[in-house]
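ENTRY TYPE: paired fold submission
RECORD: A
CONTENT: sequence, then structure tokens
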Amino acid sequence: MILENLRAQPLPEVEPGYSIRTYRPGDDDGLVVLWAEIVGGDEAAIRKQWLELRREDPNVRDEDVFFVRYGDHLVGTGTAWKRASEPPDTGYVHMIGVDGAHRGKRLGFLVTVAVLNRLAERGYKRALLNTDDHRLAALKLYLQMGFAPVIENEELRVRWSKVGHELRMKIPGLEDG
């Protein structure tokens, strides 16, 4: 999905007890546990992938990794990233997720706005992201925020048509909505 005309916006207010901050040394364990809960999977594999990304990509900086906290617990995350494969004016929204026990409180919106603001602060004009078809709540949020699908072939057209039907939303770029 792509968001053209990226610009900063105010962070939304959230329920008492929640806050947002960037990565600090020692957050790796909490991030691994959070991601294992969000996407499922083996914590050891997630840790390895995360540490490799941090070690091998200088564009993953502490100040670009955001966490939503509830008390002392990490309950949401998102990363503002510059992938080498993208055009110079395009940032990447990576690893947006919220712990299932804390969903429905607009925390995904909060962390996505923080990530987009960081990308705008870095001077990017557009933002890209990838997500899965079954993540309907995330897709709805991204569409409401102005992201549009990148429909490059008939398979994607069919998939986005199904998403639009399930969400009961018009999908930008589809003639039949």
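RECORD: B
CONTENT: sequence, then structure tokens
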Amino acid sequence: MMGSAQTDKGKVITMAGKLAGSRPLVIVVDDDLAVRSSLQFSLEMEGFAVHTYADGRELLDGSNVAESSCLVIDHHLPGMTGLETLAKLRQRRVLVPAILITTHPGTATVELAKRIEVSIVEKPLLDNTLIEQIRAALDKRLKSHCAPFELRGRDAVSRYRVSFFKTLISSDDHCFR
């Protein structure tokens, strides 16, 4: 079923490709248990289904990544950064919208995130910025599901992948050396 239904508060409760009545899935990746738990609670209160992971490896081993509606990932994770994890997902053709959460992002991180169209929300998460970014990502994803096939087809994915990897290779960010 394509499209979305909204509650009287305007919250999206279905997504293209999801069963009617299902909630959009937000995956949260953060090594801090307190952050994961509080984000899970807050996002569930906003009407989202939420799965949490402690690090990038755990996320990559998860089975529901491709089915998620949005990914919220901390940049400073043990083992690999949030952007490195995202690069591995993109290599697998997992193109879910992503929001990077971090404290004091460096210039290289900000530039790379912009180039690959990843929003950054700075910690501490004190206002509704993260919720607004998630809703914007869901709206954008819904519109892309409704776009003409030629805009979503194999050529568009190939162009996106080439652009993404050129960006990674040219990055001055130390995490990609």
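NOTES ON RECORD B: The two ends are 43 Å apart (CA to CA). The chain is about 40% helix and 15% strand.
STATUS: closed
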